[in-house]
Amino acid sequence: MLEIQASKIVNTVTFTVDKQSIAQAQAAANNLQKHFEKLANPKIRFQAQKQRRQKAREQIADSKSAIPKTSSDVKQQRIAEKAAKAQAREAAKIAKRNETADLKFRSARLQLGGLKHPITAAEEYRVLSTAKRVTEEFKQGTRSAASMNQAIREEITLLRRISTIRAKQTAQIKEQQRIEAKNYTGTAKRLKGGKGEAALLNKSDFG
């Protein structure tokens, strides 16, 4: 059987009734109250100690982080930052070149579709193949923007001239065929009319 023994705390304050005694009595009472508060609230005391330890650890960590970096550390950090900025600029440059090349290729395709005179499928394929090749070279950095634009412009200009000449030739041929057909019709009518007159003359002769 578990026996629990409780000790009784007896506090006796003895004083005479004068100002000094009253002050001493008040101080003793305050100290006694604080003592009982600590005994009654061990959890609060533990939390306060825990907070003080946590604060001390944070102060130590802050002091470590506040240690100034050496010149070597600063130099390495600057080199790393400079390299990162250079990589970012290069990536942006590549992205810009790719975007420019893609826009130029789409522009070439639209120009072919907007030609006044029709072109053949083989002609369209040839020009688009050239446009694809030069735009890829521009992406790789082996061809300048001016060279890319010039190559595509020359191909489209040449094809435009060819299609214009072919359209004119086709129109001339059609016009010639129209004239020949008209002449043939007129000749046939005249021949038919001549035969009719000859038949009438022959008929009158026999009459």
Describe this structure in words.
There is one protein chain. This protein has helices at residues 19-40, 42-65, 71-113, 121-140, 145-206. The protein is mostly helical and 207 residues long. The protein has 2 domains: 19-64, no CATH class; 99-200. Helix 3 (71-113) packs parallel to helix 5 (145-206) and helix 4 packs antiparallel against helix 5 (145-206).
Largest sheet: none
Estimate the mean pLDDT confidence. Answer: 77
What series of H and E elements makes up the topology? HHHHH
| Computed structural class | mainly alpha
Number of helices: 5
Number of strands: 0
**Gap between N and C termini:** 170 Å
Number of domains: 2
The shape is rod-shaped
Uncertain residue ranges: none
Q: Which keywords apply here?
A:
207 residues; mainly alpha; rod-shaped; 0% strand; single chain
SSE arrangement:
Layout: H1 19-40, H2 42-65, H3 71-113, H4 121-140, H5 145-206
Helix pairs in contact: 3-4, 3-5, 4-5
Can I get a quick summary?
Keywords: Plasmid. The chain is mainly alpha-helical and 207 residues long.
